[in-house]
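TA notes, week 10

Several of you asked for a full example with nothing omitted. So below is the full record: structure tokens for the whole chain, then the designed sequence directly under it. When grading your own attempts, check the secondary structure regions first.
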């Protein structure tokens, strides 16, 4: 499989598949494709994994696209202004991603539910108690909101992140929740009550324009009256 990412901050990834190669997506993200791409809706791993994906906030079923009778082409566009990043998933190089971050991957990549070790991370961490783990082997494409800033954390090194800005991290990183110090800071600081703390070793990916932040900014300008 070969691919190109185009479109700057309104990106699309265009994948060229050899005969018999397959890709999967969870949200019907296919934008265009060649006529010889066969679509099949599948639970991909059985009903147990399907229910796990539903619990993680994703669809129970996945769409599998396979090139038949020759090479094929398929494109997946981002659902929000930002960027698409390619990740080469191999054993020992697993990635944890926010629920809405998975766009598409080769069918050899496995998606599973990732539970935070501490309940507080789920209730107050901004991205929920559950995230997604990408494992197996193959290329995966993730979509992030806005621009992406990367940090390589050394063992024991931490970074404090405001809610919603954590897009993905290596599976070697750990995550927990830290309350903002001081009652005055919590109530009047405008930064919320909790921050997410990610500790290395591993790489962390931060997005500059979370869709939740955009929604909050636009809310006062949206009329709810009939």
């Amino acid at each position: 499989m070969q691919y190109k990412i185009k479109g700057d901050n309104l990106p699309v990834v265009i994948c060229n598949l050899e005969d018999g190669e397959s890709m999967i997506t969870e949200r019907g993200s296919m934008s265009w494709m060649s006529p010889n791409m066969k679509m099949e809706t599948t639970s991909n791993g059985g009903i147990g994994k399907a229910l796990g994906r539903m619990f993680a906030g994703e669809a129970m079923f996945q769409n599998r696209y396979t090139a038949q009778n020759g090479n094929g082409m398929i494109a997946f566009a981002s659902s929000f202004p930002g960027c698409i990043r390619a990740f080469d998933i191999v054993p020992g190089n697993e990635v944890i991603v926010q629920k809405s971050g998975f766009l598409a991957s080769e069918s050899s990549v496995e998606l599973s539910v990732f539970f935070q070790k501490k309940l507080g991370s789920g209730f107050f961490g901004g991205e929920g108690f559950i995230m997604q783990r990408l494992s197996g082997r193959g290329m995966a494409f993730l979509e992030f909101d806005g621009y992406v800033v990367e940090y390589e954390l050394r063992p024991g090194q931490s970074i404090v992140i405001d809610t919603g800005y954590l897009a993905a991290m290596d599976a070697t990183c750990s995550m927990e929740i830290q309350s903002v110090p001081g009652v005055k800071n919590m109530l009047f600081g405008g930064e919320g009550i909790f921050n997410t703390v990610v500790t290395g070793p591993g790489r962390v990916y931060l997005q500059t324009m979370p869709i939740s932040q955009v929604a909050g900014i636009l809310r006062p300008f949206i009329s709810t009256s009939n």
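The chain has a mean pLDDT of 83. Use that as a sanity check on your answer.
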